[in-house]
Design goal:
With 232 residues, the protein is an alpha/beta fold. The chain contains six helices and twelve strands.
């Protein structure tokens, strides 16, 4: 990976961000991801993110921490937070912004245990595919302390397959409709495409049950987004 995401974060932090990030998927056209949105304060966050941060407790792991906005808010509230990401640039920005414990590591390589594990901004994306989902959920379960919780958000993107008559078109040979190819461009460079998973709540619930986790939907919004609490 070229870590264009990390490069964009560093550029913005250093005052060199003259362009925004451009994203697209195999079922949607190009869209702009404003870099300043990745540095948002608590008051600028969507309600589901605020709900998750309000539910956080104890020692916290922030998975896919990006620029560290969630970690910083929790850290300022007195929590012990560990922020992890696979983007070298993101971790560098986290440290520059004041995140006390930020580490360049993948979720599957994490070994410590926590009271709360956060996966936000479509946290299910990190699972990549339905096939990999049980492996990730089982590993997350192994990282929970007694009475621990996983707070994760996602979007049911079935609406993107709706036709003008209210029906849904899907290629039954292409697998689960929430498995997408995700593309990112920044300053005329293209990142290698990655797999990204959007999960409907029912599928997440079924997968959780298969590894001994309970799944409780704690919040929804009008855009098919939801926040789930997973626990043993």
């Amino acid at each position: 990976m070229k870590d264009l995401f990390g490069k964009a974060l560093l550029d913005f932090y250093n005052g060199n961000a003259s362009e925004d990030i451009i994203t697209s998927t195999n079922i949607s056209g190009e869209d702009i991801l404003p870099i300043d949105y990745l540095f948002r304060s608590y008051t600028e966050m969507p309600k589901l993110e605020k709900d998750a941060l309000e539910l956080a407790k104890g020692d916290i792991l922030d998975v896919g921490c990006g620029s560290g906005s969630h970690s910083l808010h929790l850290q300022q509230g007195g929590f012990n937070v560990k922020a992890i990401d696979v983007s070298k640039g993101a971790i560098e920005v986290c440290k520059k912004r004041g995140v006390l414990n930020a580490e360049l590591i993948s979720l599957l390589d994490e070994k410590e245990t926590f009271d709360t594990i956060l996966l936000l901004m479509n946290g299910t994306g990190i699972f990549q595919s339905l096939i990999a989902l049980p492996k990730y959920l089982a590993h997350l379960k192994s990282l929970l302390n007694d009475d621990g919780q996983i707070l994760i958000d996602s979007t049911d993107i079935k609406y993107m397959y709706e036709d003008e008559d209210g029906g849904f078109w899907q290629d039954l040979n292409s697998g689960y409709y929430g498995e997408l190819d995700y593309y990112l461009k920044y300053k005329n460079e293209e990142e290698l495409p990655m797999k990204w998973l959007y999960l409907d709540a029912s599928t997440l619930n079924t997968a959780c049950a298969s590894v001994g986790l309970r799944c409780e939907i704690v919040a929804k919004d009008e855009h098919f987004d939801y926040l789930a609490k997973l626990y043993i």
